[in-house]
């Protein structure tokens, strides 16, 4: 059986694609590099991270991107020996505006090189390409309406994309206004048995989320919605382990079976906070010729039949990184700036990751945060680092991070006399507090091992001094659930001032608030879950 979620932790808005016997999933990354994360499988059971596509500012510059802004809902397709990747950069939430811009890049190989981006329309987000049997290509997206009193999700539009001249041509057309569930977005078109099937996400990307199917004999409609209601939803079933089911895409196997990759989340309590963020799951789809597609009971299952012969997926309990490679591994991400050698240095000191300090926790141009997704309710990140701070403007340590307003941080710095100290600080909805009981006067600067542990809703830090075997727990029981989509969302006059679309990270954070050239050397890290 396939066990869901297949991509645990922050991996939302999956676009699934099969090329031959290879399956690929592209997911949203928002303000994190590399943008548009990719995974590969040959059996839909075992998924290997490939890293991300957007590894340089040439493809997208996320400098200054707001929390949960940036790369939304990519679409990966393949035609005539070439991969096409569509992605939207969404720049705002305020006052009913999104300021989206859609880009297209292409490559013969997923490892690149990728073409320079083609700017397409900015009418909405969640773009996708449909390559019709007649050789034409069409771009779909939701359409945003900023006008007060109007439906902000104004329908699904389509326009032809000319692959030769690499631009949109002809007139845009609205082909679907959605069902009564509203918030119609994430369109994908599939051609089967003489029908055009339109898959959309509706209901908003929380508890009322759903995947909706409609069909038409013509690409341009009119589209009739599935008579049995949503293809998939968790709405009204708070007892289900997988919640928020919706926003998906379909794939067929070589022997003609169908599967839906979709967004999901696992709250810590019924309809509670989802620290792990929005994840990717997969469901078997029954789709007899000429009939509507159906998923058993229309709800997400944790266990799904394997589409062939496959060994069970191995659950790697511990992942250690000794930083012997010349680049960061695909499990790592960096915040708002790509992992370039000017601040992420894997060569100056062999088998060490040198992180040059960056901005403060609220800085959106040059933060120095190297982090990985939290994938389990029980997990920990341990890091052995060397750091010699000269003053209070220089900090380095381990963090449990959601966004600029919500994080926990154990760090080494120096006091007013220049003596090294270990401290713990939290930021709760923008309010910072230093946990005085956790302060430790260190005997010397240099090597220290730090650990951050998630135990369900409880988060703790611990340290180990160089040359000692004993771990010391720091006396603060912290709330892990502030690192969640639900906690991050804020509304002002009914409009989102901030939103939560990502998930919790654990990572390595270095600040050089005086721009004095400080850095930290990380010898190794270990990520373990149970």
TrEMBL record:
<feature type="site" description="Important for catalytic activity, responsible for pKa modulation of the active site Glu and correct orientation of both the proton donor and substrate">
    <location>
        <position position="126"/>
    </location>
</feature>
<dbReference type="InterPro" id="IPR041542">
    <property type="entry name" value="GH43_C2"/>
</dbReference>
<keyword id="KW-0378">Hydrolase</keyword>
<dbReference type="InterPro" id="IPR006710">
    <property type="entry name" value="Glyco_hydro_43"/>
</dbReference>
<dbReference type="Pfam" id="PF17851">
    <property type="entry name" value="GH43_C2"/>
</dbReference>
<dbReference type="InterPro" id="IPR023296">
    <property type="entry name" value="Glyco_hydro_beta-prop_sf"/>
</dbReference>
<comment type="similarity">
    <text>Belongs to the glycosyl hydrolase 43 family.</text>
</comment>
<keyword id="KW-0326">Glycosidase</keyword>
<dbReference type="Pfam" id="PF04616">
    <property type="entry name" value="Glyco_hydro_43"/>
</dbReference>
<dbReference type="GO" id="GO:0005975">
    <property type="term" value="P:carbohydrate metabolic process"/>
</dbReference>
<feature type="domain" description="Beta-xylosidase C-terminal Concanavalin A-like">
    <location>
        <begin position="320"/>
        <end position="528"/>
    </location>
</feature>
<protein>
    <submittedName>
        <fullName>Glycoside hydrolase 43 family protein</fullName>
    </submittedName>
</protein>
<dbReference type="InterPro" id="IPR013320">
    <property type="entry name" value="ConA-like_dom_sf"/>
</dbReference>
<dbReference type="GO" id="GO:0004553">
    <property type="term" value="F:hydrolase activity, hydrolyzing O-glycosyl compounds"/>
</dbReference>
<feature type="active site" description="Proton acceptor">
    <location>
        <position position="13"/>
    </location>
</feature>
<feature type="active site" description="Proton donor">
    <location>
        <position position="185"/>
    </location>
</feature>
<dbReference type="InterPro" id="IPR051795">
    <property type="entry name" value="Glycosyl_Hydrlase_43"/>
</dbReference>
């Amino acid at each position: 059986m396939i066990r869901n979620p297949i991509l645990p932790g922050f991996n939302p808005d999956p676009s699934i694609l099969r090329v031959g016997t290879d399956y690929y999933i592209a997911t949203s990354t928002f303000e994190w590099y590399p943008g548009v994360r990719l995974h590969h499988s040959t059996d839909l059971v075992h998924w290997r991270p490939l890293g991300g596509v957007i590894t340089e500012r040439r493809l997208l510059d996320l400098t200054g991107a707001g929390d949960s802004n940036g790369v939304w809902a990519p679409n990966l397709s393949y035609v005539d020996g070439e991969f096409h990747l569509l992605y939207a950069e969404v720049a705002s939430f305020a006052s009913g505006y999104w300021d989206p811009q859609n880009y297209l890049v292409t490559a013969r190989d997923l490892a690149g090189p990728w073409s320079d981006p083609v700017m397409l329309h900015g009418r909405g987000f969640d773009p996708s390409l449909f390559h019709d049997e007649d050789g034409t290509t069409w771009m779909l997206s939701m359409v945003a309406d900023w006008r007060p009193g109007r439906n902000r999700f104004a329908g699904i539009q389509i326009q032809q994309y000319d692959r030769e001249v690499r631009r949109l041509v002809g007139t845009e057309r609205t082909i679907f206004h959605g069902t009564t569930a509203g918030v119609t977005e994430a369109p994908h078109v599939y051609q089967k048995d003489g029908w055009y099937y339109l898959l959309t996400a509706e209901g908003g990307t929380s508890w009322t989320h759903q995947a909706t199917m409609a069909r038409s004999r013509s690409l341009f409609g009119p589209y009739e919605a599935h008579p049995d209601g949503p293809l998939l939803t968790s709405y009204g079933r708070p007892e289900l382990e997988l919640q928020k089911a919706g926003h998906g895409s379909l794939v067929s196997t070589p022997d003609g079976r169908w599967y839906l990759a979709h967004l999901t989340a696992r709250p810590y309590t019924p309809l509670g906070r989802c620290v792990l963020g929005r994840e990717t799951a997969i469901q078997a789809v029954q789709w007899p010729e000429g009939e509507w597609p159906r998923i058993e009971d229309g709800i997400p299952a944790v266990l799904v039949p394997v589409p062939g012969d496959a060994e069970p997926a191995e659950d790697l309990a511990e992942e250690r990184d000794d930083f012997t490679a010349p680049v960061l591994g695909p499990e790592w991400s960096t915040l708002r700036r790509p992992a370039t050698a000017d601040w992420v240095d894997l060569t100056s000191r062999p088998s060490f990751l040198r992180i040059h300090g960056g901005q403060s926790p609220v800085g959106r141009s040059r933060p120095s945060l190297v982090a990985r997704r939290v994938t389990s309710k029980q997990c920990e990140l341990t890091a052995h680092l060397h750091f010699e701070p000269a003053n209070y403007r220089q900090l380095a340590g381990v963090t449990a991070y959601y966004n600029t307003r919500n994080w926990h941080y154990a760090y080494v710095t120096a006091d007013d006399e220049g003596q090294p100290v270990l401290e713990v600080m939290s930021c709760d909805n923008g309010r910072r507090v230093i946990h005085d009981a956790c302060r430790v006067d260190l005997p010397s600067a240099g090597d220290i091992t730090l650990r951050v542990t998630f135990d369900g809703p409880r988060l703790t830090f611990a340290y180990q001094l160089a040359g000692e075997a004993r771990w010391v727990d720091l006396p603060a029981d912290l709330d892990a659930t502030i690192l969640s989509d639900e906690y991050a969302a804020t509304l002002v006059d009914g409009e989102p001032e901030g939103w939560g679309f990502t998930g919790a990270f654990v990572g390595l954070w270095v600040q050089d608030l005086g721009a004095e050239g400080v850095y930290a050397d990380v010898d190794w890290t270990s990520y373990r879950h149970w």
